Amino acid sequence: IDNDLPPAKNLEETSDRSESAYHDDDKKEKGIEIFVAKWCPHCKALEEFLKKRGLKYKKYDVETDEYGSEIYEKEGTIPVSFINGKTILGFDQRKFGEILDSELPY
Fold this sequence. Notes:
Blueprint: E1 12-14, E2 32-36, H1 41-52, E3 58-61, H2 66-75, E4 80-83, E5 86-89, H3 93-103
Parallel strand pairs: 2-3
Antiparallel strand pairs: 1-5, 2-4, 4-5
């Protein structure tokens, strides 16, 4: 994996993948999955944001996890998040919070 990545794209929600093509049947999950790298500042900000909100999530390192690497190669950016099957690229705290509020019950 190349550490000289371009900056993360603006937050994009791709609603055409409500049942993500990336998930095998045994990996489909409700909730939050994130795909990150240790060196990525946007990824660190995403994790900090989720922790502050007290949300549980499953984390995949795109450099050490085969599934994480597959998602990174398909999307071309990190962080990548799956929230209840919706794919979100990048991290913008305000927009991410709005998506979480609409997708997860409190």
